[in-house]
Design goal:
The complex is a heterodimer of chains A (435) and B (295). Chain A contains 18 helices and 11 strands. With 435 residues, chain A is an alpha/beta fold. In chain A, the strands form 3 sheets. A 4-stranded mixed beta sheet of chain A has the order 2-1-3-10. Chain A is globular and about 70 Å long. Chain B is mainly alpha-helical. Chain B has a single domain, classed as Orthogonal Bundle (MetI-like fold). Helix content of chain B is 75%, strand content 3%. Chain B is built from 13 helices and 2 strands, in the order αββαααααααααααα. Chain B has a two-stranded antiparallel ribbon with strand order 1-2. Chain B starts with a helix and ends with a helix. Classes of the chains: A alpha/beta (435), B mainly alpha (295). At the A-B interface, α3, α10 and α17 of A face α12 of B.
């Protein structure tokens, strides 16, 4: 039998104590190889009731994938972008972050910091999404984010109760709409509510759809790179329609003094027959308006314009989604993509739809108990061809010229031709699409 | 000799922390802005040095000149509106021309205690096309198309903003003047009254000279505050419609943080600093001139 000396016993104890952390460390290493921790920086406010769909989706994902742990950081509005820009500048990016399809997060997508997701995307996966979801997001066809939904930026809502009262039907042509102004005014109603105080509204909610109608995506793609000009007929004619609508009293008075929210209120208070706004406004209508008023609302695209080449079309921009750090590799990269696929795919889309979001992932809506207005929106986004939203395609600095000029035109201070000429001159000299 | 050197050393040692702070917080950022103002940025990256091109572009940009003109209007309403009105109100309360002085003091002071954004939202609610004032005029006049067209005029769109600025900031000056009026020896006022001086004479010959210092200080506040006006106007109109209510700080904000052109924005900020220093120096000159006259 081995007999330990006093000194030997102490040595053994010391060796044992030293060995224990080693054993645990090995255990940890084993655990690390099975689980992944992802850091995120998302433009989301989880406390906001409108983000409940995201919160529920996240809970469901975490339950289904206990091997993935998140360390989340959230921010919203300008604060999000300011910190994100600082992160990019200091190369201290998290594993996942919010990315836009347009220029809004160009500071991360156009600087090589966001991963191109195409290597993860299979035809089978992409086949479930609406056609505009996977449009190229970079010059080489890069895909940095899977848009979870399409933000439909033009829709027209008709209050059929008011129209019935005046003996009218939702206008099918532009001329019909103009003809409805007088009888509606006589009955004490405004024709169209739209609030352009914030300057971008006419551009995003109306002009973009008009430009799509008059020129289509083909013309716009050419105009972006300089093979066509913003002084061409599609753009000028679109401006002329806006100008004519103002002159003929289609909009309620003070359109450029009214905020978007105030215009909504005017329509909700049944002072106007139509509202021009975004497609997702249905969510607010469902929660604010009494059922009877909801039932009277008919969602439609702007009536047919004379000379249009892309009939019945609207304008939409893919919503912001989640992107991945370009440096992610191996299990971490796969885990990050799994999360994106869950969020945008069938499971996440189902949860988000139940919380009022119309996803890009194709779902059979007959299986869902959705309010009628939400169903109208879902159908609208699937059945109308979607053109570009101008400010998502062109440089923001140019919008700083175009949007005020639109207001000046609506006040009668400059002509549509002048607006087009000034914008084209700016784009030709400065816009990054022409460089 | 040795004691004097020790004293000097002590002074420098005591000044050093404040000097370091001043250099890092004031001098370095201004210097850095000066360097940045000579650069051009695109897509969040510096493209290179462009010399004084940014300054040339700013000073020929009609939108900047419009903003400069609007800031000029704010300076005028601040210096020649808020301050005189503040003096007048303070004098009325000081001389107790109205009953319930404490009540009026509180009511006049109230606007400055409210956040600028709340004030902006409040006035927007009143004057917007779906606001209280518009609804009232529509119901009285029977004209359902009435809106306040002054806000759509390139020449007069600033008037509602100037009115709100006057309403909001006069109270601060009033309190400052009132506090200083209360330090004027009552015997001087009594003597003037016994000599048969009228209220106007008392105000001009006794009260205003006694307030000269505080009027000058208020003018500095008014000028510098006017040139950096942002929050109220941004929340009220965002600089619109068109650029009719744009001011230099909104112009600066858009170019720096919306278009991410940091060089251009830095140049605008230095122009604002130069204008502030210039106008304050001008005010100081005028004050010095009057001070000599009174002395």
């Amino acid at each position: 039998m081995l007999k330990l000396t006093h000194r030997g016993a102490w040595l053994l104890i010391a060796l044992t104590v030293l060995a224990i952390p080693g054993l645990f460390a090995n255990g940890e290493k084993e655990e690390e190889s099975d689980s992944v921790t992802l850091t995120t920086y998302f433009q989301i406010d989880p406390a906001n009731p409108q983000q409940e769909g995201y919160v529920k989706m996240l809970e469901a994902f975490e339950a289904s994938r206990p091997d993935i742990t998140f360390e989340h950081e959230y921010a919203t509005g300008e604060a999000f972008h300011q910190k994100f820009q600082a992160m990019v500048a200091s190369r201290q990016l998290p594993d996942m972050f919010t990315t836009y399809v347009g220029k809004r997060t160009a500071y991360v997508t156009e600087t090589g910091n966001a991963m191109d997701l195409r290597s993860f995307l299979t035809d089978d996966f992409m086949g479930h999404f609406s056609s505009a979801t996977f449009e190229a997001q970079g010059p080489e066809g890069e895909i940095y984010t899977i848009p979870p939904s399409m933000a439909v930026c033009h829709a027209m809502y008709a209050n059929t109760a008011i129209l019935d009262e005046v003996g009218l039907k939702p206008a099918e042509t532009y001329e019909e709409l103009l003809a409805q102004v007088a009888p509606l005014k006589e009955a004490g109603y405004y024709t169209v509510s739209m609030g352009n105080k914030d300057q971008w509204v006419v551009n995003s909610w109306l002009l973009s759809a008009f430009v799509e109608r008059m020129g289509g995506k083909e013309w716009f793609n050419k105009a972006m790179v300089g093979d066509a000009s913003f002084t061409d007929t599609p753009f000028v004619r679109s401006l002329e329609f806006v100008d004519e609508m103002v002159k003929k009293g289609v909009f309620s008075p003070g359109v450029n003094q009214m905020s978007n929210t105030e215009a909504d209120q005017e329509f909700y208070q049944q002072k106007s027959a139509y509202l021009i706004d975004a497609g997702w406004r249905t969510s607010a209508m469902v929660s604010i308006l009494p059922q009877e008023q909801q039932d009277a609302i008919h969602m439609m695209a702007f009536p047919a314009l004379p000379g249009e080449v892309s009939p019945n079309s609207s304008a939409a921009v893919p919503s912001e989604g989640f992107g991945m750090n370009a440096n992610l590799k191996g299990a971490k990269a796969q885990a990050a993509f799994d999360f994106i696929a869950y969020y945008t795919g069938k499971d996440g889309a189902t949860i988000r739809l139940n919380h009022g979001e119309i996803p890009t992932f194709g779902l059979d809506y007959s299986n869902f108990d959705l309010p009628a207005l939400q169903l109208q929106y879902a159908e609208y986004s699937l059945t109308h061809p979607m053109g570009y939203v101008i400010d998502a395609k062109m440089d923001p600095e140019g919008m700083g010229l175009l949007n005020p000029d639109l207001q000046a035109m609506m006040f009668g201070n400059i002509t549509p031709e002048e607006v087009a000429a000034r914008y084209e001159a700016w784009v030709a000299e400065n816009d990054s699409n022409r460089m | 000799m040795l004691e004097s050197r020790h004293k000097k050393f002590s002074y420098y040692a005591l000044l050093l922390p404040a000097l370091i702070l001043f250099l890092f917080v004031i001098v370095f950022p201004i210097g850095m802005s000066g360097v940045l103002s000579l650069t051009r940025w695109k897509n969040y990256q510096m493209q290179g040095f462009v010399g004084l091109a940014n300054y040339g572009k700013i000073l020929t940009d009609a939108s900047f000149l419009k903003a400069l003109g609007n800031n000029g209007q704010i300076v005028l309403i601040s210096v020649f509106g808020q301050i005189p009105l503040g003096i007048l109100l303070a004098y009325v309360l000081f001389r107790k021309f109205v009953k319930g002085v404490k009540f009026f003091e509180m009511m006049i002071f109230l606007p400055i205690t409210i956040s600028s954004v709340v004030v902006a939202l409040l006035w927007n609610r009143i004057f917007s096309p779906v606001g209280v004032y518009t609804a009232l005029v529509r119901s009285i006049s029977g004209n359902p198309d009435y809106v306040m067209r002054i806000s759509e005029s390139p020449y007069f769109a600033m008037i509602p903003i100037l009115f709100v600025l006057l309403w909001m900031h006069t109270s601060l000056y009033m309190v400052m003047f009132l506090a200083n009026m209360q330090r004027i020896p009552k015997s001087s006022l009594e003597a003037a009254r016994i000599d048969g001086a009228k209220e106007g004479t008392i105000l001009i010959k006794i009260v205003l000279p006694a307030l000269a210092n505080v009027i000058f200080t208020s003018s500095i506040f008014a000028i510098s505050g006017s040139l950096k006006s942002f929050d109220l106007i941004f929340a009220m109109t965002g600089g619109g419609p068109v650029d009719y209510t744009n001011v230099m700080s909104i112009y600066l904000y858009k170019h720096t943080f919306t278009y991410n052109n940091y060089g251009y924005g830095s140049a605008v900020s230095l122009i604002i600093v130069a204008l502030s220093v210039g106008l304050i120096s001008f005010g100081r000159g005028i004050y010095g001139h009057f001070q000599k006259k009174f002395d």
